[in-house]
Write a structure and sequence with these properties.
46% of the residues lie in helices and 21% in strands. It is an alpha+beta fold. The protein is elongated.
């Protein structure tokens, strides 16, 4: 299925970028494969109901094909945001995202979305109520995830208060004010109480 997803994603890229059907030569170049391999895959994708294929003209995605391609693109973007948030350089983040996009499912993405929700603009409307502490405004929040190095100070399911969020994030935990760097605060996931 991974190879099929790569083809569908490549076809979607051509359709969106060029605003036309995807030709054999477009996909062969994009995926670095022989044109004859692309022609074979186009026939297979047509048989599966993922594309409308006219020999010597090209393909366009069917509704089913588009859904799969858009899902894979979304997964790629989610992983890329996640890896970049972790501080992984852009090239490595892209490489890892390309590998992971085909092995994830919606349950995995639902676990990652709360972590990246503060830096994400992938979906038109985000249903995720969780944010990173670095994006939290003043108010009370329950802690959902915290690095192990802070677990002695901040506990999961504990209610904390964001006192100030400027160059650093000042929080109140048990009447004690703690000053966190923005980078560290990005690693803490919270939800408004």
């Amino acid at each position: 299925m991974e190879r099929i997803e790569e083809y569908l994603e490549a076809i979607l890229d051509v359709q969106e970028r060029e605003k036309r059907v995807a030709r054999t030569s477009d996909i062969a170049k994009k995926l670095n494969v022989r044109p004859s391999s692309v022609t074979e895959m186009f026939a297979k994708l047509k048989e599966m109901g993922y594309v409308d294929y006219i020999p010597y003209k090209g393909v366009i995605l069917t509704e089913d094909g588009r859904k799969i391609a858009e899902k894979i693109k979304k997964y790629y973007r989610v992983f890329e945001k996640f890896f970049r948030l972790l501080g992984i350089d852009e090239e490595k983040a892209k490489e890892l995202s390309c590998e992971m996009e085909h092995h994830a499912d919606e349950k995995v993405i639902e676990k990652i979305c709360p972590i990246i929700s503060g830096v994400c603009n992938i979906c038109e409307s985000c249903k995720v109520e969780e944010i990173t502490l670095s994006n939290a405004q003043r108010g009370k929040f329950v802690v959902l995830a915290v690095p192990s190095s802070l677990k002695h100070i901040i506990k999961i399911d504990e209610c904390i208060e964001v006192v100030e969020n400027n160059d650093t994030v000042k929080i109140r935990v048990d009447n004690e004010i703690i000053d966190l760097s923005k980078e560290f605060a990005k690693k803490i996931v919270v939800r408004r109480c």
